[in-house]
Amino acid sequence: MPTSWSRSSCQEINASSEKVWAVLADVSTWKEWNAGVRAIEIEGLFSTGVWFSMVLPDNEVIRSQLIDVSAPLRFVDETWIGETVVRVIHSIEPLPMGRCRVTFTANAEGPEAQ
């Protein structure tokens, strides 16, 4: 029986949405600010439909696809692990005074979602 799981994290940042987007869209730097990424390789430009591979800290390799890239406000990546799909939504909301709110939402659906 399929199950689902969801987690979200939100933070306001003292930077413009454009500056935050530049960091998120540059996958070569993900390992510098994301402890869950040991290495990463993207197979093209940061755009909808492009695949990338990440090496996790335990050396597991996962392959994901960018399924929605809407610069500079959001992108969604999707990873299949067996029969379970994990989608991560990265949203940037511009705020007054050059600030923005960044929200990461991870959703999993399938037998291994929990």
Briefly characterize the structure.
The chain contains 2 helices and 7 strands; from the N terminus they run βααββββββ.
Q: Please report the total strand number as a whole number.
A: 7
- First CA to last CA: what distance? 12 Å
- What fraction, in percent, of the residue positions are helical? 10-25%
> Given the C-alpha coordinates, what overall shape results?
globular
- Our Rg estimate from Cα atoms comes to 15 Å
- How much of the polypeptide forms β-strand, as a percent range? over 45%
The strand order across the widest sheet is 1-7-6-5-4-3-2
In quaternary terms, these chains amount to single chain
What report would you give on this structure?
There is one protein chain. The two termini are 12 Å apart. The protein has 2 helices and 7 strands, in the order βααββββββ. The chain has a 7-stranded antiparallel beta sheet. The longest helix is centred in the first third of the chain and has 9 residues, at 17-25. The protein is mostly beta strands and 114 residues long.
